[in-house]
Amino acid sequence: MSTFADRIISFNQNLEFKGTLPAGIRIMNPFKESPVALQSSSTFYRKYYNDELPRHLILGINPGRFGSGLTGISFTDPKRLVANCDIDFPGPMTHEPSSEYIYEMIKAFGGVAQFYQQFYIHSICPLGFTIMGENGKETNYNYYDNKALLTAVYPFIVKNIQTQIAMGFETDVCFCFGTGKNESFFRKLNEEHRFFKQIIALEHPRYIMQYKSRSRQEYIDKYLKAFAGK
């Protein structure tokens, strides 16, 4: 019988967007672009998800370049993968503020093993996007930043939420990272498709680290209270 680890790894291996994106927007698929991401994420999931324990989904926006865009693990940058999860990463040791916050929260929750026994973090859109900035460098892009992009990826989003639910995750509650556009879109999507009985939205880690860093302990406490009430 397959475990969560088996199903998650298979999901990652088969992630592929076959639609057409608006001009200037590039899809970011670490599992197709980097053998390191598939290798490190598979090691991670076999370490923490090699079981059938009941878990709740937490969905962010879409992967970013310096976190899951490299490791293949949501909100886990290479630094946290090595230091907190004790998993080697043979690539650049990038830092993502969102990942820093998440692992501070996980420590307060009770540790990596305890947290991942109860939760699985991914994204509403499981693949990321980039555009070329004015400085000629690639920058992260969100699925909702462009109406044409959202239209293009809408079926892909629906299909992959359904696929992840079918892995066996709980559907009474789903947690959403992002209390603005991400929450608004997700609630409308859930009203239409009835994926989950309840959605609980929490401020996005990137917002907290960028605008509320001095108060982040208050947000960690808010996260823990929400998770305890599931």
TrEMBL record:
Superkingdom assignment: Bacteria
Gene3D superfamilies recorded: Uracil-DNA glycosylase-like domain
Residues in Uracil-DNA glycosylase-like domain copies: 47-227
Family annotation (InterPro entries): Phe_SMUG2-like, Uracil-DNA_glycosylase-like, Uracil-DNA_glycosylase-like_sf
The name this protein goes by in its record: DUF4918 domain-containing protein
